[in-house]
Amino acid sequence: MKFRKLAGGAVAIVVIVAVAFVAYRLLKPEGPEPTPPIAGAAQDLPDDMSRGEYLTKAADCAACHTEKGGTPFAGGRPFQLPFGTIYATNLTPDEETGIGKWSDEAFVAAVREGVGSEGHLYPAMPYTSYTGMSRDDILAIKAYLESLPPVNQPTPENSLSFPFNQRWGMAFWNLAFFDETRFTPDSDQSDAWNRGAYLAGPLGHCGECHTPRNIGFAMQSHDYLAGTEVQGWKAYNTTSDSLYGIGSWSDDQLRGYLSRGHAPGRSSASGPMAEVVEYSLQHLTDGDIDALIAYLRSVEPEQGDRNVTVNVTPAAVEASNAVLPGDDAPVEDPHGRRLFEGDCAGCHQWNGIGRQTEYASLGGSSSVNDPTGTALIQVLLRGTSIEIDGVTQRMPGFGGVYSDTDIAAVANYVLAHFGDKEGTVTADEVAERRAGPAH
Amino acid sequence: MKRNSTRHEPHDGFVGLSRRQFLGGMGAALTLAVSLKSGIANAASLASEAAADAFAPNAFIRIDEAGKVTVVSSYLEMGQGTFTGLATLAAEELDVPMRDVSVVGSPADLRYANPILEAVFGRPVQGTGGSTAMAGAWNQMREAAATARQMLVNAAARRWQVEPASLSVTDGVVVHEASGQRIAYRDLLADAAELPVPENVQLKSPDDFRLIGAEQGTPRVDVPAKTNGSAIFTQDKKLPGMLVAVIAHPPKLWGKVQSVDSSQAEAIPGVVAVVEVPGDDKIQGGVAVLAHNTWVARQGRGALKITWDDSQALTVGSEAILSAFRDLAEQPGIVAEARGTLLDDAPEGGTVIEAVYEQPYLAHSAMEPMNCLVDLQGDRCDIYNGEQWHTGDQSAAAEILGFETEQVSIHQLYAGGSFGRRANARSDYVREAVTLARTARDQGIEAPIKLVWMREDDMRATQYRPLTVQKSRMVLDDAGKLLSWHWRIVGQSFMEMPEGAVDDSLVEGAKEMDYDVPNLRVEQHNPTTFPVPVVWLRSVGHTHTAFVGETQIDEAARATGQDPYQFRRSMLGNNPRALAVLDLVAEKSNWDTPLPEGENGERRHRGMALRTSFGTVVAHVAEVTLHTDGSYVVDRVVTAIDCGVAINPDVIRAQMEGGFGFGLSFLRQGIVFEAGSVVQSNFNDYPVMRMNATPQFDVHIVPSSNAPSGVGEPGVPPAAPAVANALAAMTGHAYHSLPLGGSVATS
Amino acid sequence: MITFTVNGSSHAFDGDPNMPLLWYLRDEADLTGTKFGCGIAMCGACTVHIDGRPVRSCLTPVASVDGRSVETIETAENHPIGKLVQQAWVEGQVPQCGYCQSGQIMSAVALLKTKPSPTDDDIDAAMSGNICRCATYPRIRAAIHSAAEKLAYEA
Ligand code: FES
Ligand code: FES
User: Fold this and answer.
1) Contact criterion met (CB below 8 Å) for B532 and B363
2) What is the distance between the alpha carbons of residues A432 and A425, in angstroms, rounded to a whole number?
């Protein structure tokens, strides 16, 4: 009996806390509209770009709302979530299938509150971040989208399993997890820092991928940017932690990575991050990139899942040159090495410097230092490409002919040689990734 | 063809070669082009190069004023050493040093046509294929050279007023032993040209051969130019003002252009024109972008916005094709061979082995992607090409242009590989290039145009080795003797066939197999339901029948507890040539002594396979290491070959090494269609053997005085089955479908 | 304007800076010994040396060779190692169709420059990126060893 009482008490407390929390959520003010120079387009906006276009790029709308090979912003791109597939909508001004008939109010509500024409949006649409944006910025984006040629392309039906196909359910999710608040500048920090925070948060929504999610699929605020797995790829720790994050990256490295997808001596962006750079970051002005760097440097260091510590001078690489691997390079897996020497060395070289392009350099990259090989498997299976300034850098995929064993072997070889890590990639895991989302 | 009563060989090179064998894709020339009767008068007009020659006794031999010999080859040199073989035969009979001999490709000319091809096609055709160049040239080139030699000797005899028989020749110098008089060929040319062509010439006795069969072989004539970058392939050929064309093919096979917006392409600096190339039932066509620089043309192609009309396009994928073929494999087909009576069931204590085998489409993927240079000027058309199908391509071009064939000249260049791809009965890429040139001319573009396919175009718009489904059933008695073999092959015909006709190429190696099987039935289905263009690939039907036959024999041997070597031996009683090759390979590979164990749990085993193709018998024994993760490598290959007289043993060894490597790639390659499009695009998804997968080779040539047979193709068929047999011996799995991939299940 | 040297002579180019070096060499400079095979750095047919290092010219933008020195198969024989390698190629009768061989030789020269007496493993490591569809690999391996022996002898 005692137990019952206790349990009843606990339930009562939970209910009270929940009600209070909901009330707090509902009543909490959204805050004032952010204003330039923190919000708005870049101060050094080039003449040939409109404010709306710039903001659309900074908010990276195109990456999600464009199908592979499809018309930009016409939607249709599938996103495979744990509970089903949802499709990005058509943002062109087509009256029937796009946003042609949307009022400003409706558009702003969709972006900031996740309420679309058919009800609540799923948080694959990052309104949880976009909610910090200013109304002006959102309307500038809308104006830009309206300037595009309309494309009549209906968005495929989402295929979600019950109960996730119940849009009203999102209302409860929102109550629990959605904090509708405008971006508030930190008066202790510089304008540049605040601008960086606005870019990384409300616009660029970095946290949506780089922050681990809780059981309710919401970002874990205490682990902000600490890195996680998303869409089968790895979003690395981008906090200022010097061991696990970007704390030891130089400004040049950060600048290179953000503005062209390659940090000399460090990583090249691949997979979903390559898209972010391609569609969004490469278009940011120098001033905005610097602001972003200033902000990222200040993000509280977190260790995240700790599994990626980058060795920028692994022994095997140090002993190698462009043409040959070092004599003492351990060859634990002759199969992996054989595949590498035939199909990979032509671009990456034995010392990982990258032969024809810096994008092929492997030394210091997070992917070849992550013993789980998460991103490595994806790149090997599906390849990756990035278009910077109209020039495409591409690594072809090998999933078509490499067996799961082959992929595991070459991934573990690469981890050993270029990261000095004992890779843990297994054929079974490759099989799972092969069947999983392409991103 | 005129036959010479005094020659030493009992028959010409074609005896024993079936109609089908030169239909085979590649290797070398089909036959010598023209009979010796065409003589001096005709020869002079054959090649423009002849103008500078002082002496041209026939279509194949020219000697210039410096005494240098030029051999005219009606065959393509695509890597198999054909030019060198021809030069060797000529130098041997002419008694000149190899350094004085060079080889040029002949133009396309029906006077170079092959009488056997004529019988097949019902019209004369000049082309290269079927591993028969040396077989064909064996008598004809030697006769051509011996005729030239005899005329030169006769000229010297007349000058010195002595009997021709009293003269000898060393290194191009005629010597009268008795008087000590000497005169070089170059000083006899004018006299010799006046003399009649002798009716009968004597060929050398094999005992007197200096060059033919020399162990180290005569050095290849094309090697120096191929080591310093000076050899000119079609890709390298340039003409003044030439434009390069890169074409956008339909993404789905046989799709058509509905509309094209070329404004962005035309805006690229350097793009000269955009030309729509109409597709038809032979070519894909598409939209070509023309520029002086290949890269610019390619960028232009990337900027085209094309809407395709897929109403006529292939819509299905390989899965649908396979499934339709699987159904057919269960139904009786056209009988290609039947002897004895098939057994339905095994006798008491016997064994039935039955399996369905699937092999994919294969692309030739020669190192040089397909290309063709067309110079269309007024009423003339000059085509520059690694030409493997001379007169076929010539008449295709003439037909497109509304020309007589004489208005089309074909200039033969080196081919960067071909493996059969450049001999195409549809003349596909040549047609595409000529159609493009014609359309461009109609648009007012007056320039030679070189159509070049990028690697992806070559992989995707190409013509493929047919996909096959084969059902094979063996019945063995209680002693393990193979009593009955029922083999059904489903695949598209290599060539258009009348309804119900047997395509011999599709069933070659099954139909007239090496082994003695009392009850045999070979059937085929050659459905035309799926319009995927197919064409021969190096060793043609043997590419798919050797895998089935040779791996099932091992499966049967394993099932009946027999040694695969002894099992094969027991069925070769009526085939002494094949038996000798098999015994030789077993002996040289130490077949009876097991391989030493590998390290770290690796397993090692040998596998063997045997196949007669194109008149040549080849057996490979592959030593294979299987790693614990299922990956495998071929460490060493022992090969035995009987190809008749070994004209150039070094070239034969090279062809065995290369043929094995080519065939080994079948274990990993496959062209797959999905919804009418080819999935593969480049070497990342269509892998080929690389240096680090290359075994060591040990090639043994059976001494023979039989007329030579080809070597370009026969090394290919037994390669993949030999390796699969070694793997199967270790894993216990029988492999029924290709590709296997780079690793296999280990248990 | 991009300026660089090719085989010792100076070149200047003001076209598309992103044009791969391969197409500059073949189509603008008429040096057709360097071949096109795949265009994605997977076959090695287009291998040339930039400042003495082997690169796949099909993916090397012309702009990236600004101020640098390019060497191609056409002048390989001017260097002692190149000459030895070419001789070994002829003696070993390596080429079949020949299309891949310029790239093979350029890679082999780079290997021998890096390591004058390579092992079989070294040859695998340095040469496996060069495809030969005719599978002349065993002869390439033998020719490299034989060039290495001559190199040791001459040294
Ligand atoms: S063409 Fe450059 S590597 Fe193949
Ligand atoms: S010799 Fe033909 S591709 Fe190498």
Assistant:
1) no
2) 11
Strand partners, C69: C5
* Alpha carbon distance B379, A7 (integer Å): 100
Give the residue, by CA position, lying nearest to ligand 2 atom 4.
Answer: C132
- The residues near C79 (Cβ < 8 Å, ≥ 6 apart) are C109
Statement: residue A167 has pLDDT above 80: no
d(CA A205, CA A225): 10
DSSP string, B161-209: TS-GGGEEEETTEEEETTTTEEEEGGGTHHHHHHSPPPS--PPPPGGG-
The hierarchical CATH code for the domain C2-74 is 3.10.20.30
CATH 3.30.365.10, domain B36-228, yes or no: yes
**Mean pLDDT of the A122-149 span:** 93
- Spatial CB neighbours of B344, under 8 Å, sequence gap ≥ 6: none
**Interchain contact, A383 vs B684, CB within 8 Å:** yes
Distances (CA, A) of B52 to A255, B49, B69: 68, 6, 12
* Strand pairing report for B677-678 and B61-63: unpaired
According to CATH, the topology of domain B320-360+466-731 is: Aldehyde Oxidoreductase; domain 4 (3.30.365)
Three-state secondary structure call for residue B497: coil
Provide the 8-state DSSP code for B248. Answer: E
The strand pair at B351-359 and B468-476 is best described as: antiparallel
More confident residue, A217 or A331: A217
From the alpha carbon of C56, which atom of ligand 1 is closest? 2
Which ligand ends up closest to the CA of C45? Answer: 1
Strand ranges, E, within B436-535: 449-452, 468-476, 482-491, 519-525
Please list the residues that pair with B105 across neighbouring strands: B73
With beta carbons less than 8 A apart as the criterion, state whether A269 and A386 touch: yes
Give pLDDT tens digits for A169-185: 777 777 777 888 899 99
Q: Is C144 in the pocket of ligand 1 (CB under 6 A)?
A: no
Find out whether B360 and B672 touch, Cβ atoms under 8 Å.
yes
- The answer to whether residues B438 and B279 touch, using CB atoms and an 8 Å cutoff, is no
The alpha carbon of C129 and the centre of ligand 1 are apart by a number of angstroms equal to 9
Q: Which residue has 């008749």 as its token pair?
A: B644
Per-residue pLDDT, averaged over A324-340, amounts to 79
Please answer yes or no on whether B366 and C99 come within 8 Å at the CB atom: yes
User: Residue ranges of the domains in chain A?
Assistant: 30-177, 191-296, 315-435
pLDDT reported for residue A437: 73
* Pocket flag, ligand 1, residue C46 (CB < 6 Å): yes
Are C113 and C134 contacting, i.e. CB atoms less than 8 angstroms apart?
no
Question: Domain A191-296 class?
Answer: mainly alpha
* Confidence grade of residue A328 (pLDDT, cut at 50, 70, 90): low
Model pTM? 0.91
**3-class DSSP state of B148:** helix
Calculate how far, in angstroms, residue B78's C-alpha sits from the geometric centre of ligand 2.
Answer: 9
Contacting residues of C for B692, CB less than 8 Å apart: 124-125, 128
CA-closest candidate to residue A226, choices A129, A309, A300? A300
A330 or A186, which is more confident: A186
- Specify the pLDDT at position B8: 30
- Smallest CA-to-CA distance from B140 within B114, B122, B106, B164 is with B114
CATH annotation of B234-310+370-452: 3.30.365.10
Weakly modelled stretches of chain B, pLDDT under 70: 1-53, 110-123, 127-132
